[in-house]
Each structure stands twice: as C-alpha cells, then as structure tokens.
Amino acid sequence: MSMDKVIIYVLLFICFIWLYRKYANRQKSAYIDDYDFHKGLILKFKSQRPELSDEKISVVALALKDYFKICQMAKSDFVSMPSQVVDELWHEFILFTRHYQRFCKSAFGRYLHHTPAEAMMQPNLASDGLKRAWKYACRLEGLDPSSPARLPRLFALDAMYQIENGFYYSKDCKKNNGTGYCASDIGCSGHSGCAGSSDNTSSCGSSCGSGCGGD
To answer: Of 28, 43, 90, 168, whose Cβ has the fewest other Cβ atoms within 10 Å?
Structure first.
C-alpha cells in the first residue's frame, strides 16, 4: 500500500472518529433536554422551597439541565455551580441514587461527582471552574461572554428569585454597586471569588456554598 493511501485512510479514520463523537455528544445533549425529573424529586424540592411556584421550579430544573450540558461541553474539566437554588435541586437529585446513576451514565458516560468547596485541593479550582461555567453558559445561549446582552439563566436565577444566601451577578459592572459579582469580568481578571452573595459580600473558596461543582 502506498504512503498516500495510508495517509488518506488515516485521515478518513480521524474524520470518522470526529463525526462519531460529535453525533454522540448531540445524542447526550438531547437526552438531557428530554429527561424528565422524577415527580418525587420535584415534590421533595418543592417542600424545601415552598416559596417557589411550580413555574419557577420548572425554570430551576431547566437551569440544572443547562449546568449538565455545560459539564458535557467542559468534558472532564471542573465546572463550578454558579447558582445556590440550582445546586439545591442537584443535591436532591443525587439522593435519588438509582435515577441519578442512570442519568449520569446516559448523559456523561460516567458518574458526575458533586465536589464540595471544602474538598477542593487547589485554591483556584472554584474560580477557574466559575470562569469555565460562565464561558460555556454564554456559549450555550449564544451570548458574548465579554459583553452579554443578558445574564445566562444559570447566573440569573438566584437574583431573579431573591434566593437567600444565593449568588447574585450583575451584567453591567457600572451598575453593580457592590451588590453582587460583575459577571462580564469573570475570567478577565484575577478574581479569587466564586460568586457574589446576596448579602453584598464576595463568596469564594469554602464559602462558595455547600457544594461548588462537578468534576
């Protein structure tokens, strides 16, 4: 076999692998979109957050799906969880162990671990993970990460629903007034924090919340 044919076969094989992976990723993303959370999970979460209407809980569930799709996009890289209320729903989902394990196998091909901030070995892991979450959340919704027309859903919910101890972000740094995190600056400077909290303080490291992300 000539060297030219070998090169052609290698290129065709690489192309096939690329197309297969692209198809597999689309299938996994579609699986997440079509996934129905167990009714018991939604009821349990509703009992934890009685102030949220059914409509708002549905939006929180969609935001959790956003986070899972972002984890797909990031592959094995750590992704911080930018929303307190979405993190709470994720916690409840994990407790439905069989459902969560099956979901992870179909969505990721592996178990997506929830990493508490206290367990992070690298001090910059949470902030790097938040930058990654911001980049992929903007990409998911077709937004410019450096100058978004609006906040991605994952970054908007805590402020939108006035979640106590939630992470609040501002799209416009000039209008931030110290009430949260300047979202468009994430990844553009040396922020050490994970998010802006509702009590006007920065939260970072172990204060990022009970859980900070998935590996």
So the answer is: 43
